[in-house]
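Students often ask why we bother encoding 3D structure as a string. The short answer is that it lets us treat folding as translation between two languages. Here is a chain of 112 residues written in the first language.
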Amino acid sequence: MAASPTLFDRIIAREIPSDIVYEDDGYIAIRDIAPKAPIHLLVIPRKFSARLDGITDATEMGQLWLTAVKVAGQHAADYRLLVNSGEKGGQVIFHTHIHILAGWENGPDSDV
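And here it is in the second language, the structure alphabet:
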């Protein structure tokens, strides 16, 4: 875990309520509270890394992406997976997570 618990650490620990749509031993998926698409979910590893490039184990990296694809497929046939890495890459919460964006009638309204 980070030196100070992140918002996602606190959600995982059930200190902060969230709309959980999926969870297993390694991951949790929640609805984003400020959605950028009709369906906007976040897949969060329980094991902390501040950024995507902090995951150096290929198995962990693959499992993260496989989980995101699994969760996305449970909510939409077509979807976008997005990761922001680092402040200048648009990352706001420094706990690795994958955005699932979907649900547009005619495709995405704008780039995210």
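Translate back mentally: The mean pLDDT is 94. Keep this in mind for the problem set.
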